[in-house]
Every structure is written in structure tokens, then in C-alpha cells.
Write a structure and sequence with these properties.
The chain has seven helices and four strands. The protein is of the alpha+beta class and 168 residues long. α2 packs across α5 (82-95) and α4 packs across α5 (82-95).
Length: 168
Amino acid sequence: ASEKVCKDEMDVLNRKLIHASFGLEHLLREISQIYEAVCYCEGTADEKLKAEMFRLPEMAAELMIDGYPLELIDGDAAHVPLKWVSAVLNKVLKELDNPRVLVLSILGLQSTGKSTLMNTIFGLRFSVSAGRCTRGAFMQLLPINDMLKQECKCDYLLIVDTEGLRAP
């Protein structure tokens, strides 16, 4: 009986930990929301603030070029920050001198190991852990090996990891 109680307590603590985890993706989500709000406040926002805000996509683009995943769809609010994503991707394209990009996405049922599969095949950094499911969609830029560039006819892969189908 005490083993079951201990297991139940561990399950409760594990769920709390999953919901309490805080990472760079959460900060970038908030930054994207602020950026979108400033973009929609044409004429009302302070010009100095707007100038600072328009540097944010450049910083996110640098993270993306360095291999950090960027949130494409906010899975908690089912929101796509179009102005933010467009600005970041435009900065990426400008920084990499308009590379040829092939987009690869994965789709499947919830909790079937999509993120783990992509991480294993491509050596990516999509968040994975026991009991954690992807919420929304994340994208990560992967440079193509020089030997494969001619065969693949692209310079980069943009891998999109999606939330599982039938997710609550």
C-alpha cells in the first residue's frame, strides 16, 4: 500500500514539475506577444520603444541560426504570431543570404514519439521528457552537410515538430 501511495505522490510531483518547467521558449513566447502588440499599435507606441522592439526578431533569428527551436504556434492559446514569425524568418533569410530551405514536418498521434524521432534522426533539440507532450508547433533550422547540398538541392532543413493529433 505504501508503494502505491509513493507512486501516486511521484505522479503528482511529476505533473507539477511538467507544468512548472520554465525555459527560453516561454520567454520568447512573451517577447513575441509584446512584439505583436507593438506592431499593432501603429502611431501610439513610443518611437524609441518601437526601435528596440524591432531588434528582437534579429536576436531570435540568431538563436534559430544557432540551432535553437522557435515556437511557430502557441499550443496553449492556439495562436500563431504571424508578424513575429515573419519578422524572425525574414531576418534568418537575410542573415544567411537567402538560402534554399526545405521544410520537413512530422504529424502523428499524441505521445507516439515524434519529437524523440526527430531529435534522434537529425540531432535536434526539441524538448522531450516522460509525460511531456509538445504543445503547438516548433521549428528548428538545420544546416545541410556540404556533401549533401547538391543531392538535396537545399542549404538548410527547417524541421517542424507538431503537437500530436487528438491532443486534449
